[in-house]
Amino acid sequence: MTIMTKNTVQMMALSFFILASSVAQAGLLFNYSQLALKDMDQMTKLVQSKITEGRKSGGDKTIPLKEGLQSVFSRPNSDFMIEKILGPLKTELEEETAWESSIEALVREARGALKNSRAFKPVVQVTYLIFLENLLSEMKPRVAEPFENRIITEIRDAKIEVTKEALHERKLRMMKETISPSAIAANILKDYDQSLADKAKENKK
């Protein structure tokens, strides 16, 4: 039997802690409760810092931009701040031809975390839920567009379930009930299909 030294045990423990922490926090810069404390000036500075970081990057310029995008959509939007600060990030990503691919990557990350919720703390789960809720709200008016329709459909088909821990976390901190993003997406698509059916009936008259 191999006898492990004290240093070896300590290194293994440290490695496990780092791995566990990275899984628990996922790829988030901030969780929703931290972002909720940031005002307009602070969020604007965050966005500008990520744009500057992207421009100075010698590698993939979209990585900092995606981090900024994720933070913007992960902040509770009761004050409708998203529409006020999203523009520069979207413009920057579109110039890199990376707006749609960035949205796809972030949705995939959120979907994966919420489908494997046991690996993530409730505060992280709620952050991803808010991200998807805000994204769906942003895309709803453009549900007829191919890209938006596809993303909304993907979120619906993911059949995301909200855990009891996430429900408790959000109700405790925000006094707000949480509906599955998949259910929200399903309602958006249902309303869109109904509007198409109504228009078809009108055209037949």
Care to give the gist of this entry?
74% of the residues lie in helices and 0% in strands. The chain contains ten helices and no strands.
Explain the overall architecture:
This protein has 205 residues and is mainly alpha-helical. The radius of gyration is 20 Å and the shape is globular. It is built from 10 helices and no strands. The longest helix has 24 residues, at 181-204. The protein has one domain.
N-to-C CA distance = 85 Å
SS class: mainly alpha
Low-confidence stretches: 8-26
Shape, please? globular
Radius of gyration: 20 Å
Largest sheet: none
E-strand count? 0
Strand coverage percent: under 5%
Overall pLDDT: 88
Overall domain count: 1
Question: Approximately how much helix is present in the residues?
Answer: over 70%
Succession of helices and strands: HHHHHHHHHH
Number of helices: 10
Please supply descriptive tags for the structure shown above.
single chain; 205 residues; 74% helix; globular; mainly alpha
Task: Give the topology, please.
Elements: H1 6-25, H2 32-36, H3 40-56, H4 62-74, H5 82-95, H6 99-115, H7 122-139, H8 146-157, H9 164-174, H10 181-204
Helix pairs in contact: 3-4, 3-5, 4-5, 4-7, 6-7, 7-9, 8-10
